[in-house]
User: What shape does this take?
Amino acid sequence: MTSDAGQGRPVIDQTDHRILEALDEHPRASVAYLAESLHLARGTVRTRLTRLTAPDGPLAPVTARLVPASVGRPLRAIVTAEADQATFDGMIDDLTRIPEVVECLGISGRSDMSIEVVAVDADDLYRITQAIMRCRGIRRTETGIVMRELIPRRMGQLTSGK
Assistant: This one.
């Protein structure tokens, strides 16, 4: 792994690509499995994984990728929100306290944020959007229900070079 002088962020090399591609296919692969299947030394794999998963490394923190329906929340929605920037920190604190908020992104355009939420049903979604509206600094929201996941979140294609 090298450092990109322009961004100050680590840039992954071909060996990192190979490790990430193997992890994309086998997310729970052990160091021994990766080393053997990629024909690398265990120490090399361990060192690379340590750098890839470091706080400033290129891999995002690992979290369970639950299917929302498996925890009784089959309804997904994207809530876009306009925000008062003066109360931004408090607003994020408030949004974090809503368990059904699974992701919040700052975006450009007509809205300031894209907030993904999961809900039991339409009534529950209404309750969640009302909780979002009560957060400090939220001016206005618009909600779109996810009808179908057409392309699931993916990253493997970025490391495979395909």
